[in-house]
């Protein structure tokens, strides 16, 4: 029971005092996610026209409070998305076309990325056209309408925040473009020390190799080393061999 005696039920996704009547199949579900998990088709949130009160079971038009018993269906209600939930400082973003968790004043909508982002990223992120409409490269699930927040990588690609955290347990590179997903400067300096303290066998000590840097896209020649090969342009070790190994020509 919610504060004020309201009947609060809902599901694992949302707390609300009503069930949605799916316009596609006519069945009652606590939310669109519950519907989509049980059916072989998806519920169009924008087409929801009727809800059933969790207290008096009256079927009625979608609205914030029951017209029969006055039960509050949700502290927050969006008449466009038909989202009912506890107050989480949600707001409807007209540009995104859906509701976001706020507070609204802490976010801005990037028209090129087509996504609401934290104000801390204003003017500080790389834009990619409609990047939010791409699926997360880790879990392959939708990002734009996900209830999980998006994390913007330095390269501009997006991952679910939770997928980004899981990725860092296994590696440090964007799964799409292989650019470093965080500032690796300190680790590169540690690698400098390890390379200096780990000489290669004599037959490899003068071996050079062409490399391509995943961070700055520059090509350069570096001394071959099993621990890593350093970019001659930006000092990153996030590199890949871009040619065959060769020994320098002997001086006459």
Automatic annotation (TrEMBL):
Segments forming domain CHY-type: 4-71
Domain RING-type span(s) in chain numbering: 136-177
GO biological process, one term: protein ubiquitination
UniProt keyword list: Cytoplasm, Metal-binding, Nucleus, Transferase, Ubl conjugation, Ubl conjugation pathway, Zinc, Zinc-finger
Enzyme class, spelled out: transferase
Keyword Nucleus attached: yes
Source domain of life: Eukaryota
Domain CTCHY-type as annotated: residue spans: 73-135
Example GO molecular function: zinc ion binding
EC number: 2.3.2.27
Pathway(s) of this molecule: Protein modification; protein ubiquitination
The keyword Repeat belongs to this UniProt entry's keyword annotation: no
Record Pfam families: zf-CHY, zf-RING_2, zinc_ribbon_6
Entries under InterPro entries matching the protein: RCHY1_zinc-ribbon, Znf_CHY, Znf_CHY_sf, Znf_CTCHY, Znf_CTCHY_sf, Znf_RING, Znf_RING/FYVE/PHD
Catalytic activity: S-ubiquitinyl-[E2 ubiquitin-conjugating enzyme]-L-cysteine + [acceptor protein]-L-lysine = [E2 ubiquitin-conjugating enzyme]-L-cysteine + N(6)-ubiquitinyl-[acceptor protein]-L-lysine
Quaternary organization: Monomer and homodimer. Interacts with AR, MDM2, KAT5, PLAG1, PLAGL2, COPE, UBE2D2 and GORAB/NTKLBP1.
PANTHER family according to UniProt: RING FINGER AND CHY ZINC FINGER DOMAIN-CONTAINING PROTEIN 1 (PTHR21319)
Function: E3 ubiquitin-protein ligase that mediates ubiquitination of target proteins, including p53/TP53, TP73, HDAC1 and CDKN1B. Mediates ubiquitination and degradation of p53/TP53; preferentially acts on tetrameric p53/TP53. Catalyzes monoubiquitinates the translesion DNA polymerase POLH. Involved in the ribosome-associated quality control (RQC) pathway, which mediates the extraction of incompletely synthesized nascent chains from stalled ribosomes: RCHY1 acts downstream of NEMF and recognizes CAT tails associated with stalled nascent chains, leading to their ubiquitination and degradation.
The protein, known as: RING finger and CHY zinc finger domain-containing protein 1
Gene behind this protein: RCHY1
